[in-house]
Design a protein that fits this description.
Largest sheet: 2 strands, antiparallel
Low-confidence stretches: none
Strand order of the largest sheet: 1-2
Distance between the termini: 48 Å
Length: 760
């Protein structure tokens, strides 16, 4: 201790001249540069200190290479592409190849034909005499170079997809080093170069194994390029009984991907290195090169083409908007987590194109919006059809048409926003849904105001009671409630909630699902019934009062409605009652049962849903307000208060076995009732032809599996409560309990149980 010197006073004196909350920096640097200055001389941060071998610097991409080396470079690049999609970046994968770097640098600086611009000659190296007639020279300049051009062009396509619909450093990390990846070149030109390379190969005397591997790699590059053509593909979607659409090149691509041979990789020394990180404008810290396992890369190519083929095939079979909605709800939601960045981007761009066509079909967004609304509230919605404003003043008619046009524009924008949610990763979907709630809420207010005003003018559908049906507003409210509920319960799957928040989540889910059920069983059914009543009762009464030409005109209109519109309305109503309402009732019961189960756990002291974590710095009321903040800005439905939440947990202060047993028995009945409804739903999906017509086979499969998971979950919950009841009945009420959570069969319902506190 005697050797130590106390510098405390000197230290604080030296700090007296510093201003508080101010970063110290040299006036010669701006803040960002000043921060970066700490990277200098740090080998982990300073790209100027990257160590490269002599071979890395002096590597000549234009030099002839043995066939094994050419195959090795091709293989390494094919593996590198999938490595890039696996949370890496271009400088650590594709751009670590000196061949690619040189080709792309020359492409932007050279003139002449495409082949001349894509030269492999590095002008910074001393020129070497090469035998341009040798096989090795031809393998580099007539085979490898076209392959490099194809891979570069495909990387360019991937970057274009990423720029449009993917999120940087979330779905994909680009770091493209400001290079041009041949994006302006037509893929047909690059495919021609590949065909020329394959033709030249067939004239050479190569071993069969080497020839096959080179041909396979060239074919693979060609099929990757052809993926871009999918975004211009036109399907017969939304056409009943349309023939299944097949793309032979996707089947062929799967075969070629299955025959990829990444064994025996031998690359020339210096052909792959950190050289580009040192040589070009690099604003990122030094990193090691990255490559996934060769077998994984091969499987990724197979899976990529299979997933794209499955998506295109399914999309081509979609016959109506109901099928499309269920396909998005089940297939895309389930598959999107399995897609790599490329497939995810292609799917998102395929669903809705730049011209706003849906799945590249003849149905565009404006037409889709009307069909989506009427898939819920039934066809023949007055406000969605051209308005007959003959009875209105000119000024009023123009104003009405302007307001309706604005509402349709707002609807298109909001539904377009909703379509873009699908295909994103689950966390991003949460963020987008959160933002979308306010948009739906505002749209509902505007729509209700407009529909009410129009009804006063005699424009709009009416209920059987003679009131305004508010069909469009009801669709908006239904969608908003659905999005609110999805935002809430998807957080369970993402494990966003603490254990002490679970009752709050299921309590609010029960509230929202009940509102949704009330809306659909009430107003939505009434709207459809009102449209049916208009055709079957209102119009016939009007016919009796008319004569002559007017009567004949109305009779023709009525005949058309009876023949073409009435069957559709009745079918929509049956689907609603036989499937949608049963599904909503089943979920309502499930949420209510889980809520009741958690109340029991709270009652017996296994947990406390009125207290947050130990040593919390704030009250549970603040937690309540913070957790429900995403829903607090919604006007309708109004957010429940904390007082209502507390009252929902009210129970006798002194634990009572009889009270607990009664509650357990009632909750078991709820789980059994929900199980019964899910079984009914499952049977309907398998046997009811009308319901099945609103699903693709794959979508129905997902829906049935979901029902199966929920049935199993109901059984497990009921068994757990039965076991708890027997323990309480045996007098173990004095024993302490604690809540335990395990992964469940269904993503929205983990297995929540209680165990004795003495259990370890």
């Amino acid at each position: 201790m005697e050797d130590l010197v106390d510098i405390t006073d000197e230290l604080f004196k030296s700090l007296e001249g510093l201003s508080e909350n101010k970063v110290v920096q040299s006036p010669l640097f701006n803040l960002l540069e000043g921060t970066r200055a700490i990277e200098i001389s740090n080998p982990n941060l300073d790209t100027g200190l990257i160590e490269v071998d002599v071979d890395d610097v002096s590597f000549d991409p234009s030099a002839p290479q043995h066939v094994d080396s050419v195959i090795g470079v091709m293989n390494r690049l094919l593996i590198g592409y999938m490595s890039w999609l696996n949370n890496s970046s271009l400088p650590l994968t594709i751009l670590s190849c000196r061949y690619v770097q040189t080709l792309l640098q020359n492409y932007t600086s050279n003139g002449g034909t495409l082949s001349q611009r894509c030269s492999l000659v590095d002008s910074r190296l001393a020129p070497q005499i090469k035998d341009s007639q040798s096989l090795e020279y031809g393998l580099v300049h007539k085979v490898l170079k076209p392959f490099l051009m194809a891979m570069a062009r495909f990387v360019g396509f991937t970057l274009s997809v990423a720029m449009e619909v993917l999120y940087e450093e979330e779905d994909i990390t680009t770091r493209n080093m400001n290079l041009n990846y041949l994006q302006n070149e037509a893929i047909e030109v690059v495919l021609f170069e590949l065909d020329t390379a394959k033709a030249w190969l067939s004239t050479q005397n190569l071993e069969k194994h080497d020839f096959d591997v080179l041909q396979t790699n060239l074919n693979m590059a060609g099929y990757l390029l052809k993926l871009e053509t999918l975004l211009g593909l036109r399907l017969n979607a939304f056409v009943p009984n349309a023939s299944q659409f097949n793309l032979p090149f996707l089947d062929q691509a799967v075969e070629v991907a299955s025959s990829l041979n990444f064994q025996g990789e031998k690359v020339p020394s210096g052909s792959f290195s950190k050289f580009i990180q040192l040589d070009m404008d690099n604003r990122n810290i030094p990193s090691e090169l990255y490559a996934i396992d060769a077998s994984n890369a091969k499987q990724e190519y197979i899976t990529t083409f299979k997933q794209i083929k499955e998506f295109v095939s399914s999309a081509s079979q979609i016959a109506n908007v109901a099928q499309f909605l269920n396909y998005m709800r089940y297939d895309i939601t389930a598959s999107s987590t399995k897609y790599n960045a490329l497939v995810k981007g292609i799917v998102k761009l395929f669903i809705i194109r730049d011209d706003r066509s849906i799945l590249g079909s003849s149905l565009h967004l404006d037409g889709y919006v009307g069909q989506a609304i009427e898939s819920l509230v039934g066809v023949n919605t007055v406000i969605l059809k051209p308005i007959n404003a003959a009875s209105l003043k000119v000024e009023t008619a123009l104003l009405v048409q302007k307001k309706i046009a604005q509402l349709k524009t707002d609807l298109e924008s909001t539904i377009y926003y909703n379509l873009l949610i699908y295909g994103n990763n689950p966390c991003r979907q949460q963020q987008l849904r959160n933002k979308g709630l306010v948009i739906w809420d505002t749209l509902q207010i505007n729509s209700e105001t407009l529909e009410s005003e129009l009804f006063v003018l005699g424009i709009g559908d009416e209920l059987t009671t003679g009131e305004a049906s508010l069909a469009v507003s009801s669709f908006i409210f239904h969608t908003k409630l659905s999005e609110m509920l999805l935002l809430l319960i998807n957080g369970i799957d993402l494990e966003l909630y603490k254990d002490y928040e679970l009752f709050l989540i299921y309590w609010y889910a029960s509230y929202l699902s009940q509102l949704l059920l009330d809306l659909d069983s009430g107003r939505i059914c009434n709207i459809i019934e009102g449209k049916i009543n208009f055709i079957t009762h209102t119009l016939p009464k009007r016919l009796k009062k008319l004569k002559g030409e007017k009567k004949q005109k109305l009779r023709d209109q009525h005949a058309h409605l009876v023949e073409h519109v009435l069957p559709k309305l009745e079918k929509t109503l049956r689907y609603h009652r036989n499937y949608t309402l049963v599904k909503l009732k089943a979920y309502c019961l499930m949420f209510e049962a889980v809520k009741s189960m958690l109340m029991i756990y709270h009652y017996i002291g296994a947990t406390n849903f009125l207290e947050s974590a130990s040593k919390s710095l704030t009250s549970f009321e603040n937690y309540f307000n913070l957790r429900l903040k995403p829903w607090s800005s919604i006007g309708v439905p109004q957010l429940p208060t904390f007082e209502q939440y507390k009252r929902s947990l009210n129970c006798p202060h002194v634990p009572n076995v009889d009270y607990a047993n009664e509650a357990i028995s009632a909750t078991i009945l709820k789980f059994n009732s929900s199980k019964k409804l899910f079984k009914e739903l499952q049977k309907t999906l398998m046997e009811d032809a009308e319901v099945k017509s609103n699903f693709l086979e794959s979508s129905a499969g997902y829906a049935q599996r979901s029902c199966e998971e929920l049935i199993k979950t109901s059984i497990v919950y009921a068994l757990n409560l039965t076991e708890l009841k027997s323990k309480l009945h045996l007098g173990s009420k004095s024993a302490g309990y604690r809540m335990k959570i395990n992964p469940g069969d269904h993503k929205f319902f983990p297995y929540i149980n209680v165990e004795s506190s003495s259990t370890k």
